[in-house]
Amino acid sequence: MIDIGANLTHDSFDKDRDEVIKQARTAGVESFIITGSDVSCSEKAMQLAHQYEDCCYATAGIHPHHASEFNGETEAQLQTLLNNNKVVAVGETGLDYFRDFSPRPAQIFSFEQHIQLAIDNEMPMFLHQREAHVDFQPILKEHRDKLNHVVVHCFTDNEKALFDYLDLDCYIGITGWICDERRGSHLLDLVKNIPLSRLLIETDSPYLMPRNLDPKPKTRRNEPKYLPHIADFIAQQVGLSSDELITITAENSKTFFNI
Fold first, then answer.
1. pTM here?
2. How do beta strands 87-96 and 56-60 pair?
3. Number of domains in the chain
4. What digits encode the pLDDT tens for the residues 221-241?
5. Are strands 171-174 and 56-60 parallel, antiparallel or unpaired?
């Protein structure tokens, strides 16, 4: 298995990061793509990817929450990171109108600048979209022909958004959100519409602990070791064995990130 979205730079992992990675690998997680969400986080993700050379890779980008930080200096810093051999995608970037931690014009500007970085570097994009499809999709569509692979990670949106992204030949990242009977039940049917060649799996740890874990963990911190549970649950929805789904999504991940 490959966890395409693990926030292993998060401070909740500072005391036991090595053990977290070890337990996940014992559970069958072969590789981790460590998400960069601002310049500092992206630098730390790159450093961790070198520290865990045999299993970790990194993305470099500025999350829409931090889009106000994007400027010429941060763009140059991101470019330096993208030149590193362990950085395999541009992102996390996109639009988040649910939190609106950065003004929407700043989010759009940052997103568009990340797109240009991806085009210039011929690299895949790791994208975030929450309650912003109305602006996100047209921006992505405008530039899609010039871009390499694109994944809309942690997909939680509706059928229209899913089909719009598939029409743009995007990959779709599914997390433990699908295991949440309160918020994720609509994904049970939607996931069946994702072509297997475009499906990727992720934990987004330490966020989005699968709610149907049994027994329930004592902590609310999600970990990459729970990726097999997510894979098993998705496999049930799409009518595959767990082994089949794991093989398919791992190969998709290797193709997407060129690893």
1. 0.97
2. parallel
3. 1
4. 999 999 999 999 999 999 999
5. unpaired
